[in-house]
Amino acid sequence: MSYPVSDLLTGKAAPFRGAETSAIAKTPASGPVRITRLGLDGDEQADRKHHGGPDMAVHLYPRDHYAAWRDHLGHHALLDAPGAFGENLSASGLVETHAQIGDRFRLGSALLEISQPRKPCWKIEHRFGRKGMVAQIVQTARCGIYFRVLEDGIAQAGDVLELVEQGHDGWNLERVFMALFGANHTARPADLREIMVLERLSPELRQRAAKTLG
């Protein structure tokens, strides 16, 4: 399976809300971009406690979801261009029901591995100026995808995310997200025990599964 990437996007930390800063506003990069274990060159994370790091190095938010957000929100200018959700990669086809934890993709010369779903964040609502978006994400699992970088490399707009190795069979991002964050969803203990030992899932979410199990 392969998924063309229309844009690679980066952003700088900037004033966001009061004293808070954020780099959620990202714009397409021109030309080749180096991708390392900490993400795309030129990209920043203002809150390194909750964003960035090796297990959240590269973020993809499927363009497939933009139409559903238009239906939910009505017209919003942010949805007219890539990067509305702070993503680093803009692509269609690779959605949470298809993407499995641990799937590995070649993008340009970089090797990426799906590490976790994106946790919903209040900054999305502040960026859009709309309440209820986090609740909608929790209900639908239209959360987005995080990758870790296994091999540094260079990529550019128009390159393809090429699946080179499948990860944990049966554990797509929607299933993991709903088990750990889903609205009105009680995860089965057996599922939580499985999540705890998914080797390619980020340690943070494996620990969350253990804590939820009690």
Q: Could you please describe the fold and organization of this structure?
A:
With 214 residues, the chain is of the alpha+beta class. It has a single domain (2-166), classed as M1 Pyruvate Kinase, Domain 3 (Beta Barrel), CATH 2.40.33. It is 24% helix and 27% strand. The protein has helices at 66-73, 122-128, 133-140, 173-181, 189-196, 203-213, and strands at 2-10, 14-17, 20-22, 27-28, 33-36, 39-40, 58-60, 89-91, 104-107, 110-117, 145-151, 153-155, 160-165. The strands form 3 sheets. Strands 1, 4, 7, 8, 9, 10, 11 and 13 form an 8-stranded antiparallel β-sheet that branches. Helix 5 packs antiparallel against helix 6 (203-213). The longest helix has 11 residues, at 203-213. The protein is globular. It comes from Allopontixanthobacter confluentis. Residues 27-164 form the MOSC domain.
Give a topology summary:
Elements: E1 2-10, E2 14-17, E3 20-22, E4 27-28, E5 33-36, E6 39-40, E7 58-60, H1 66-73, E8 89-91, E9 104-107, E10 110-117, H2 122-128, H3 133-140, E11 145-151, E12 153-155, E13 160-165, H4 173-181, H5 189-196, H6 203-213
Helix pairs in contact: 5-6
Domain MOSC: 27-164
InterPro entries: Benzoxazolinone_Detox_Enz, MoCF_Sase_C, Pyrv_Knase-like_insert_dom_sf
Organism: Allopontixanthobacter confluentis
